[in-house]
Amino acid sequence: MKNYHMALFIMSALITNNIIADEIEEVVVTSSYINQSSDEIKDPLHIITEQELETNPTQSLGESIDNLLGVSSSDYGAAVGQPIIRGMSGSRVKVLNNGLLVRDISGLGADHLNEVDMNNVKQIEIVRGPSSLMYSNGAIGGIVNVVDDTIAKQDFKERDLRLGLETQSANDGEVAQFSYKDNLGGLNISLAYKDGSFDNYDIPMGAIIHSEEEHDDDHDESMMKTMKVSTMIMMKILLIWKIQIMSLRPFD
């Protein structure tokens, strides 16, 4: 009798398991950051489109992304604009140009600006958190990838002429940029010029505390945040064939 009840119990358990197994639907989860549009990719990737950049134009990378959630700029002013992602900066946050690491003097200190041409940007991609490690080693805070037409994926369809000017009163800063691109007989031609100059930052009167022996009249109420003068000239001639890409990029 005991064996009979035991057999019924085992059979009922097997039937229950089969019913549960039949009710469970197989779910396949895949993810990729490659070849997906912005609406198909979930956070932590954020894309700033060319239209958004034209609505709020600026010649500073940090000021372009400063209003995003979890993203800010270093306290050296908009002229520098070193990105800070989730409280991390420096070597933990990388700036890329078309997927390649931008190697300039900005890595020497937070008071050095990033040499990025904001006058020819197609979109800016921001990846927050450790997901950025798939793009660059050590970038545990995040990455900022600036996408432009340095190497065009297709022929330019029309002539494009852009001029960018910006002035900053707090540091007597001036930035001027010029870019031109066109297609002449299947030959992509792109020219770019950038000139920027930033002086010391002016601060309110009394912001610097002096000792009793010193006289305020002997001190200029200014703080040296950054002094940067940069000039960059780029000429890019791209000849695109089916199996060959030629790129010339002389810098001055």
Assign an overall shape: globular
Overall CATH architecture: Beta Complex
CATH class term: Mainly Beta
How many β-strands, per DSSP? 14
Task: Assess the beta-strand content as a share of residues.
Answer: 25-35%
Q: Which regions contain 5 or more consecutive residues with pLDDT less than 50?
A: 221-252
Q: Determine the CATH superfamily.
A: TonB-dependent receptor, plug domain
As for the number of domains, it is 1
Largest sheet: 5 strands, mixed
* Order of helical and strand elements: HEHHEEEEEEEEEEEEE
Give the helix proportion (percent range).
Answer: 10-25%
Side by side, the strands of the main sheet go 1-6-7-4-5
Q: What do the pLDDT scores average to?
A: 68
CATH-defined topology: Ferric Hydroxamate Uptake Protein, Chain A, domain 1
Structural class: mainly beta
Total helical segments: 3
Distance between the termini: 97 Å
Radius of gyration: 28 Å
Description:
There is one protein chain. The chain is mainly beta and 252 residues long. It has a single domain (45-209, 217-248), classed as TonB-dependent receptor, plug domain (Ferric Hydroxamate Uptake Protein, Chain A, domain 1). It is built from three helices and 14 strands. The strands form four sheets. The protein has a five-stranded mixed beta sheet. Strands 8-9-10-13-14 form a five-stranded antiparallel beta sheet, with no helix packed on it. Strand 8 and strand 9 (173-184) form a beta hairpin. The chain is globular and about 70 Å long. The N and C termini lie far apart (97 Å). Residues 221-252 have low confidence and may be disordered.
